[in-house]
């Protein structure tokens, strides 16, 4: 399944910033065409698109609300119009327990935008439904071009939250457990030339953290180590291009233990890389890049919300 991304094409949702932007940057630099599907581009993403509007390794932006299935279908249509065959799909868009779709701020409260009269949570639509629907569309596209014999890769973004529990972020944690189950369940698609894998990052220095003071208060800047989007992007590129990934990414030496890349596998990315086993896994532990030391602060906030009279009662 190992192949070069040069001359290939990719769709990446959520690549307007963060991990997915870092992955997009690496793909373009290695001669891969990319379609960035997102609500908007941050300035650094706009620079990437403007710089690579033509030539080998083009970048195209398609404004996309990933909670809208019609728009997900359209991003595949646009990618096919622009590039023809698509080889790599990364349903990377995701959110981390925002106040507007948060377990401790239920539908009907002032902070929530989820309707108490509906059966939807935006966090679930973005973090679970969108990756499922994008996977279905990707598989359909891959099979359409199966006769060409080119290997395909469906690459998901999980999290160490998919291995743990988090009182302050129960819906987010549930979504990442769901992604792990989805990826493992689709592993046998490798027999059709479609590899399905996921990265499970630790604490990543992206706008999902840096733009949100309510989350930053969990991080002890003097004790906790950030993993950079670029480090995660390197692992993502390795999953696509190589049959092995290295245990070590921090020093870029590549001399660590090598893990085989196969369908259905999940790779934790802290300051090292390791395979997350389906059974009897050791868990993320306290490896550098995996820890946010002060969860007590946000847990206390959650208990304070619960202490309010009438919490969770329907306003209908």
Automatic annotation (TrEMBL):
It comes from Penicillium angulare. One of its GO terms (molecular function) is oxidoreductase activity, acting on the CH-OH group of donors, NAD or NADP as acceptor. The keyword Methyltransferase does not apply. Belongs to the short-chain dehydrogenases/reductases (SDR) family. This is Uncharacterized protein. Keywords: NADP, Oxidoreductase. Gene3D superfamilies: NAD(P)-binding Rossmann-like Domain (3.40.50.720). PANTHER family: 15-HYDROXYPROSTAGLANDIN DEHYDROGENASE [NAD(+)]. It comes from the Eukaryota. Coiled coil: none annotated. The keyword Repeat does not apply. Pfam families: adh_short. One of its GO terms (cellular component) is cytoplasm.
């Amino acid at each position: 399944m190992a192949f070069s991304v040069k001359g290939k094409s990719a769709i990446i949702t959520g690549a307007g910033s963060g991990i997915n932007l870092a992955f997009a940057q690496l793909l373009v630099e290695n001669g891969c065409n990319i379609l960035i599907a997102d609500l908007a581009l941050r300035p650094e993403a706009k620079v990437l698109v403007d710089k690579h509007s033509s030539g080998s390794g083009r970048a195209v932006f398609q404004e996309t609300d990933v909670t809208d299935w019609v728009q997900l279908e359209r991003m595949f249509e646009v990618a096919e119009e622009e590039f023809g065959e698509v080889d790599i799909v990364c349903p990377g868009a995701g959110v981390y327990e925002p106040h507007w779709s948060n377990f401790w701020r239920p539908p009907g409260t002032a902070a929530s935008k989820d309707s108490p009269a509906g059966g939807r949570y935006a966090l679930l639509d973005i973090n679970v439904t969108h990756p499922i629907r994008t996977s279905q569309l990707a598989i359909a596209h891959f099979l359409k071009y199966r006769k060409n014999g080119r290997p395909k890769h469906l690459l998901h973004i999980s999290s160490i939250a998919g291995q743990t529990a988090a009182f302050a972020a129960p819906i987010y944690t549930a979504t990442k457990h769901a992604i792990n189950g989805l990826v493992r369940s689709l592993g046998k698609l490798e027999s059709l030339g479609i590899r399905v894998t996921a990265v499970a990052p630790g604490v990543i220095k992206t706008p999902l953290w840096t733009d949100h003071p309510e989350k930053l208060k969990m991080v002890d800047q003097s004790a906790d180590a950030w993993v950079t989007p670029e480090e995660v992007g390197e692992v993502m590129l390795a999953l696509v291009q190589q049959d092995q990934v290295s245990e070590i990414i921090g020093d870029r030496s590549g001399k660590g233990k090598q893990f085989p890349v196969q369908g259905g596998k999940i790779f934790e990315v802290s300051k090292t890389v390791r395979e997350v086993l389906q059974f009897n896994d050791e868990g993320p532990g306290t490896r550098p890049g995996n820890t946010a030391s002060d969860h007590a602060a946000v847990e206390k906030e959650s208990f304070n919300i619960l202490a309010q009279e009438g919490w969770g009662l329907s306003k209908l």
